[in-house]
Write a structure and sequence with these properties.
9-stranded antiparallel β-sheet, globular, alpha/beta
Length: 378
């Protein structure tokens, strides 16, 4: 185990793994590599842009931005006000830092604001890193935007696994304009947008299309505060309503190379593998099929309950869960309590469950499972 870089706190846990009947796994960073790339962005006034040809998810100079089959002029698109708002939102509503190692890390402050030498590195959440890299492709990274000192952060309403959204409030010192920038899950953000039902349905349709491609989809929104609203910047419920929709961004996190074979070996050994993820149900379904958790030969009697949203699963009574022929193989939009509920359901079935994950939101389930395996960086 030491040779495999595995630390074991209790030896009996290691011995118990041999009797496992079910594995509950987080998706991002566990079944997948945790190396997210912003693959697509949709801005209604512009269209759909895609990023291709990337082999380094941290390098904003790597790959090309395309609109359909044509390489897009990054400088030209920056003149569009909606694109500018989109890029400001994903860069400023973001706590990650993307930089180059060695002395050239200072290149972030060069005239181009995109360094050209050195090894790229980043700190922060993989989702936010991918958004920061996308903004930097257009020379609109956070460091660039804050370079002249005109923008000041006034308030931050952080992301958590229950709220599924984050917002920040910035003031432009020159214009005295105060703006709210927000990102989050579509089903959480869209109800707070100042849009028509027709626009709402169009956005949900776009989200569905992107999610079915295995992309994690975030909704980007913005609004400018009136003078009367400025004193209330620390009231989250006030800041995150009446927003203007800007666009969607689709992030791809490739499965680990070994995941498909590992899942297959577990299934051959009679071990059920369950994916518990915070992603959209269509994203989760696409990745689960890609790694073999959802197989074509799934019994028809289990088809209706093999994929569930946490909203549906959380509402079930214990007796209803226990009455299922088999527990769901995929549960999407999970909160920490959803993962714990799944572990408890396995316990009531006398199944021996292992929980594995790499995030803070996995901690309660890791602790409650028969064996908890916390994933490291790689």
């Amino acid at each position: 185990m030491v040779k495999g870089h595995v630390l074991v706190r209790k030896m009996e846990a290691l011995e118990a793994v041999g009797g496992v009947t079910s594995i509950c796994s987080d998706k991002t960073g566990t079944l997948t590599q945790g190396k997210m790339i912003a693959r697509k962005m949709w801005i209604p006034e512009v269209g759909t842009l895609s990023v291709s040809g990337t082999d380094n998810h941290l390098d904003p100079t790597n790959g090309v931005v395309m609109m359909e089959d044509t390489k897009f002029d990054l400088d030209h698109i920056k003149t569009n006000p909606e694109v500018i708002k989109f890029l400001k939102s994903i860069a400023l509503c973001n706590a990650s830092v993307v930089y180059q190692r060695q002395d050239d890390a200072l290149g972030l402050h060069q005239a181009s604001h995109v360094p050209t030498n050195g090894t790229w590195a980043a700190t922060g959440d993989p989702t936010e890193i991918s958004l920061q890299v996308l903004a930097m492709r257009f020379r609109s990274g956070k460091a660039s935007l804050l370079l002249n000192g005109n923008l000041s952060l006034l308030a931050e309403h952080p992301f958590d696994s229950t709220m599924k959204k984050m917002s920040v409030v910035y003031e432009d010192q020159d214009s005295q304009k105060v703006e709210v920038f927000l990102k989050g899950a579509g089903e959480v953000v869209i109800p707070s947008l100042a849009i028509s039902d027709q626009e709402r349905n169009q956005i949900f349709s776009r989200i569905q299309d992107l999610a079915e491609q295995g992309l994690r989809v975030l909704c980007i929104a913005h609004r400018t505060l009136s003078d009367d609203e400025k004193p209330h910047i620390f009231k989250r419920e006030t800041m995150e309503i009446g927003l203007h929709f800007i666009g969607l961004v689709g992030l791809y996190d490739p499965p680990r190379l070994e995941t498909f074979e590992a899942v297959k070996r577990c299934q051959i050994a009679g071990i059920n593998v369950h994916m518990l993820t915070g992603d959209h149900i269509s994203t989760a379904t696409a990745i689960a099929r890609e790694v073999g958790i959802l197989r074509p030969d799934l019994p028809s009697s289990q088809a209706s309950t093999s994929i569930m949203g946490a909203g549906q699963f959380d509402k079930l009574e214990d007796a209803e869960i226990d009455g299922m022929e088999a527990l769901p193989l995929v549960i999407a939009r999970c909160s920490p309590s959803t993962k714990v509920q799944m572990i408890e359901a396995l316990r009531r079935r006398k199944a021996f469950g292992v929980m594995t994950g790499d995030g803070v939101n996995d901690s309660p389930a890791l602790k409650r499972a028969h064996v908890g395996i916390a994933m490291g960086l790689n």
